[in-house]
Specification:
alpha/beta; Rossmann fold; 2 domains; six-stranded parallel beta sheet; 12 strands; 44% helix; globular
Amino acid sequence: MEVLESMAKHGHEQVVFCYDKTSGLKAIIGIHDTTLGPALGGLRMWPYKSEEEALFDVLRLSRGMTYKSAAMGLNLGGGKAVIIGDPRKDKTEEMFRAFARFVHSLGGRYITAEDVGTTTDDMAIIRTETPHVKGLSDTSGNPSPMTAFGVFRAMQAAALKVYGTDNLAGRKVAMQGVGSVGYSLVERLLEAGAKVCVTDIFPEKVEKAVQLGAVAVPPEEIFDQECDIFAPCALGAVLNDDTIPRLRARIVCGAANNQLLEPRHGKALQDRGILYVPDYIANGGGVINVADEVNIGGYNRERALRKVSTIYDITLKVLSTAEEKGVCTHEAADMVAEDRIAKALAQKGMYLPK
């Protein structure tokens, strides 16, 4: 992959490659756009097959964070970081300390937080080396329940659009991935009276969901389930030429990032009559929760909950924009986000004395 060419193509400002010999740290930090504020985005740890695969992921994820924060009405830019390694066996304190020092060297341009493969305990280690970390256990904590609540609200908005009611009782949801976010989402859906079937590559996670009342489905069969809502809650690029023809749902709405393999797959969903709630609209609850830490007076859970609940209205705005503009929903979401960034950039033309 041509790094600078890829950065130019998608508007990235900075990519930082991080290596520490003592801990074996191999990490990449991507800063996409800081027009609205410092780049906030979680730290993902994953056993990538290659450095190129890790770079591809961090570029996609950091760009998604720019659009997510903008669409959620936050004064934050987009960034992301990845550590190449297996979170189940490769984690060490030294590794996170080393990563934290790289974050600190950026002077606040990038603020890190928990993501796939990392925890609030990992963030606590990072905090010993830099203040540029959010989502610690004594502040906003694990963002997964808030992310799940946002996805739930997005599902309600989509159901209102498709079925004329946002009541999810009796609706069948097929969920791919029941990690921290997926598990919390299963809880909310079952409480709302929905029927949920789940799958995951880790059997113990499926078993936990089954104990709540969900039904287990083999990973290779999740796309073929007859359901009202298909919820991708694992990794990205799961909506592609192979999977979209198999879907038997009216709505796709889930917590995973970068669900479309390519933008054209948004059109493929539309052509099949499937309403797609863009991923960074549905899963914005986590960044809203973490962002509340920067408010005067510090984090307030009730305030964060109220803000996350507005994802319902944001989803309806995106769906209405798609209809008005005659575009796919993922294009409409980009329009909403880009409009806010453009207005902020224009206002920066006015000089303000320090």
